[in-house]
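Table S2 (continued). Query chain:
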Amino acid sequence: MGKKRQAERFLKVSALGIKVGGSFLRQKAKAFWSEPSDADRGKNFEMNARRIAEVLGQMKGTIMKFGQMLSLNSELFPKEFTSILASLQGEAPSVSFVEIQKQIEKSLKKPLIEIFSEFNETPLASASIGQAHVARLKSNGKKVVVKVQYPGVDEDVDGDIENIKLLLKTLKSFSKSLDMTHMISELKLHMVEELNYLTEAKHLEDFRAMFAGVEGILIPQHYPEVSSRHVLVMDYLPGIPLQKFMDQEKSGTVRNRVADLLMRFYFKQLFEHGILHADPNAANFAINDDHQLLIFDFGCIKTFPKSFITAYKKLLNNHLDGKSENLHSEFLALGFKVNDDKVYPPSFYLPYGEILMEPFMSEPYSFAQGHLQERLLDLGKSQMRDLLNFKPPKHILMHDRVMVGVYNHLRAMEAAGYWRSILLEYIRSTPIKKNDGKPPNDNEEKKQS
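Corresponding output:
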């Protein structure tokens, strides 16, 4: 069964590569007689991005997770590509309840009706490696969420990594100098961990301890007696998904409070504990009626060496203090390298630092006005030749994935706050100016329709 499944997945990726590669070859052939317009190029990118998103979404597992990571790399691919691939960040197609029931009973070695008094056959959510259902435990009557891993995805990792390498050859059509070696290595490492729900259960307990007593942040408790490598049962925490909250919440005060919690959640785990909840997908967060931040899915956790966190804090402190003359050596201390012997001057690093650190240089600051993503994209295009030779350390890949996700969420919320004070609290233990949730212009109803 495993070999047959892998052969089917290989054929799907191969067929995708032929379609995508063929379309670009045809476009190049036409260019021999007439140079295609930007509009024609854009349409071709969109068509192929839709093909890739559709196939990766159906395949699930490691290869869908790779697609999600690609969608966050706006500096490497055209906007037409990443905007469509971003659809993989949303709900994945679910599998039938029959398959889910078989997986639960096989994994827990009991009939489903002996474990749960109620079980909603319609999934609460579906993602790249599993889906979640609401149920009620027979033993104590508690309402719970049952996270079930799709059958076979844990056996697909090695084969999918090879399929990804094959797909990357096609993606050269989008980005000719594409080199994602570090990303693939990091992906494989974290997929092996993420596919073991017992590891995620340990992460859940670690984070519950980490945030015990932290006002406004809630993490569910899991039930080890009915959990396994492929099934994870945890408390049901009612709330609306973060994406729905961002789309519908009108109050600037409420949006700012949630944004404040989100920023604190990431800074506390990173700078105090050296670890990171490394999947910023909006589907992993919800907001309850008390405007508390609910966090789910602790499968992908990145642990950083103490030396990296120390060097990173030093870099941030010097930037906040305006000591730009030290930044070059500190980038190198973090592990940044180049492919040749060229040593890039501070003028290469500083523009990136200035954009990324803008929310922390003065306060209050509103993410509604910064246009940070567009400016980073324009800067990357202007320095593309040097950027392609620039090798970031492997530890920065997951960090950047998270921070891009956080910045995207804060922008969607049009969040305003005292971000500098929050950052200083975690890198210097400096007393913080509390964010009262009010936007700088007190435009409480800015998002009124």
